[in-house]
Design a protein that fits this description.
The protein is mostly beta strands. It has 1 helix and 5 strands.
Amino acid sequence: MDFIKKENFALHPEGLFRARLIDLIDVPSRRSGNRPRFKCTFLTGAAAPGGKQMQIIYSITQKLSSLSKFGRMVTAFGVDLDQIPDDPGLDLGDLLNRDCCLEIRHQVSQNGSKKAKVVSVLPFSAAETTQPPDTDGGDASEIEVPF
């Protein structure tokens, strides 16, 4: 299979980034017998060459529990899993446009290609603890967030 390299593609940088969930869709599992998945699209605070905000995709199973990746993501958005009613359950639309902090790392495949991977979804406040110390005597409250 031939792959076509996307022009002007920029690999998302590693680190902690403020992000906003902009899309959440059901996708079938690639393997039969596995749980269905969600494809989560985040707009992050990182900028691509040209200044456009970068996006990253996070694929997770649809299992909602305190130990699942989906459950930890929902908790990072400030939703208490114990307060979600059994019927009708979680309204996925309520998760859209919620802010969080993503930890992103690069993963190198066996063929040497590199991809950016979301390794954890944290509360939005996690980004505040990672700001570099203010060394120019300015007010730290002047830091701008892209959203």
